[in-house]
Design a protein that fits this description.
Blueprint (H helix, E strand, L loop, with lengths): L5 H9 L3 H23 L11 H18 L2
């Protein structure tokens, strides 16, 4: 679903690079999941201070590095 369809049309019509397509795909998915999670519980986005380094490292290694090395 995500690998074809409208994303392929955008890439061809607007001559977008693959990294941009990957960013848009992840961004749209994140917005949908954030909206869904926010509608379920009010305190779903609370993160304790001791968990911030873990989430920062995960955000860099698990997401940013993946899209950098595997566009």
């Amino acid at each position: 679903v995500w690998a074809g369809g409208k994303w392929r049309i955008y890439a061809g019509a607007y001559n977008l690079p693959t990294l941009t397509i990957a960013f848009l795909r992840a961004g749209v998915t994140a917005l949908v999941l954030i909206a869904f999670a926010a509608s379920m519980r009010q305190n779903v986005f609370r993160i304790s201070q001791r968990d911030l380094p873990f989430f920062a490292l995960y955000g860099f290694c698990g997401v940013a590095a993946y899209y950098f090395f595997f566009p």
